[in-house]
């Protein structure tokens, strides 16, 4: 296990990058704590796999350093970093049995045969492959092969880090849930530093202690699932996390009041004067349909019943928005306005969240 330090790290696939826009991975400085489980979350092309490949040694960064426990490994080959990596598509030895595939990393390092047998049995139970240990990998389904690949990545207990690059893409949905649970259990039992790349917010939020959200080559927020939900540091985080994502309303802001579509909205905190584009970010859970003269004008465009609650789709001054109401809460037929819970309002200037007066860092 290791603390992983990213020091002034950036990468461009161009030979002579001239501006920040030329970088697939923009400058990053961060310590990833020894023994924690991280998820790299973002849309395709945002730089997740680039960062993972730099950590693993498959890619040398254009600038900066990577350190394991304060030791510079920037130029060290993958084998010298003592990491295990599981890729999006299964990598298995077809001519070997499942047992030999799982045992291979341990045999390659000269581990005791008794320990190998015990560890392989333990991992096989974890990935649900005890019944096929003596079968050749050739002919197994893609998801079975990916389970072998996962198992081979997890079989070593002495690794500095376990890196997963969208490892559950080819796994069926029910097995995905089981394997995520087992990965969490493995992390709890052995305390490996784990980094898990995914574009799926459910995978990220259920797997990780801390989620690293990436957008356009930049890390825009690192936080717990609760922090990302309640206080998104960037509008992308609010949009990408949550179903539906956070509503964004253009606003004018003065002190502790905002105006949305010309209507005053109390913010609950005082904000210093700001330039740029100002917006209120309000998750659908904090939007209420109201009757009467108070509130922001809104038109209900449709109601979606998703079982445990209903999603109310709205038009607010030409902008689309959503509200969530419990299944047993009636939707007023004459509701033409919405109000916001001040505790659920975030304020943004040019997409970055502002801190209100008295708010903790």
From TrEMBL:
<dbReference type="GO" id="GO:0005524">
    <property type="term" value="F:ATP binding"/>
</dbReference>
<dbReference type="InterPro" id="IPR015853">
    <property type="entry name" value="ABC_transpr_FbpC"/>
</dbReference>
<dbReference type="Pfam" id="PF17912">
    <property type="entry name" value="OB_MalK"/>
</dbReference>
<keyword id="KW-0813">Transport</keyword>
<feature type="domain" description="ABC transporter">
    <location>
        <begin position="4"/>
        <end position="241"/>
    </location>
</feature>
<dbReference type="InterPro" id="IPR008995">
    <property type="entry name" value="Mo/tungstate-bd_C_term_dom"/>
</dbReference>
<dbReference type="InterPro" id="IPR003439">
    <property type="entry name" value="ABC_transporter-like_ATP-bd"/>
</dbReference>
<dbReference type="InterPro" id="IPR027417">
    <property type="entry name" value="P-loop_NTPase"/>
</dbReference>
<keyword id="KW-0067">ATP-binding</keyword>
<dbReference type="InterPro" id="IPR040582">
    <property type="entry name" value="OB_MalK-like"/>
</dbReference>
<keyword id="KW-0547">Nucleotide-binding</keyword>
<comment type="similarity">
    <text>Belongs to the ABC transporter superfamily.</text>
</comment>
<dbReference type="Pfam" id="PF00005">
    <property type="entry name" value="ABC_tran"/>
</dbReference>
<dbReference type="InterPro" id="IPR003593">
    <property type="entry name" value="AAA+_ATPase"/>
</dbReference>
<keyword id="KW-1003">Cell membrane</keyword>
<dbReference type="InterPro" id="IPR012340">
    <property type="entry name" value="NA-bd_OB-fold"/>
</dbReference>
<keyword id="KW-0472">Membrane</keyword>
<protein>
    <submittedName>
        <fullName>ABC transporter ATP-binding protein</fullName>
    </submittedName>
</protein>
<dbReference type="InterPro" id="IPR047641">
    <property type="entry name" value="ABC_transpr_MalK/UgpC-like"/>
</dbReference>
């Amino acid at each position: 296990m290791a603390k992983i330090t990213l020091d002034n790290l950036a990468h461009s696939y161009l030979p002579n990058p001239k501006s920040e826009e030329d970088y697939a991975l923009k400058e990053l400085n961060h310590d990833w704590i020894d023994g924690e489980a991280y998820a790299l979350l973002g849309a395709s092309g945002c730089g997740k796999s680039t960062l993972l490949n730099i950590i693993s040694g498959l890619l040398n960064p254009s600038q900066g350093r990577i350190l394991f426990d304060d030791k510079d490994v920037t130029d060290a080959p993958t084998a010298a970093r003592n990491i295990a990596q599981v890729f999006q598509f299964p990598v298995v030895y077809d001519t070997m049995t499942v047992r030999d595939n799982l045992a291979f990393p341990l045999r390659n390092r000269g581990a005791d045969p008794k320990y190998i047998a015990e560890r392989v049995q333990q991992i096989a139970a974890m990935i649900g492959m005890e019944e096929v240990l003596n079968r050749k990998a050739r002919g197994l389904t893609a998801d079975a092969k990916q389970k072998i690949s996962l198992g081979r990545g997890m079989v070593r207990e002495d690794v500095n880090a376990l890196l997963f690059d969208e490892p559950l893409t080819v796994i069926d949905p029910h097995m995905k849930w089981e394997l995520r649970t087992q990965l969490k259990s493995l992390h709890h039992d052995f305390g490996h530093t784990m980094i898990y790349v995914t574009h799926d917010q459910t995978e990220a939020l259920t797997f990780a202690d801390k989620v690293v959200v990436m957008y356009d080559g930049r890390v825009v927020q690192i936080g717990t699932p609760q922090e990302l939900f309640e206080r998104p540091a960037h509008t992308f985080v609010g949009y990408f996390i949550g179903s539906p994502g956070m509503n964004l309303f253009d606003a004018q802001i003065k002190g502790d009041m905002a105006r949305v579509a010309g209507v005053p909205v109390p913010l609950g905190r005082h904000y210093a004067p700001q330039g740029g584009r100002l917006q209120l970010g309000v998750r659908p859970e904090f939007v209420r349909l109201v009757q009467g003269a108070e509130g922001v004008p809104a038109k209900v465009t449709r109601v979606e019943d998703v079982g445990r609650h209903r999603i109310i789709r709205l038009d607010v001054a030409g902008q689309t928005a959503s509200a969530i109401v419990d299944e047993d809460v009636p939707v007023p037929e004459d509701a033409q306005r919405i109000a916001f819970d001040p505790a659920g309002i975030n304020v943004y200037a040019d997409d970055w969240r502002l801190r209100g007066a008295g708010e903790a860092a």
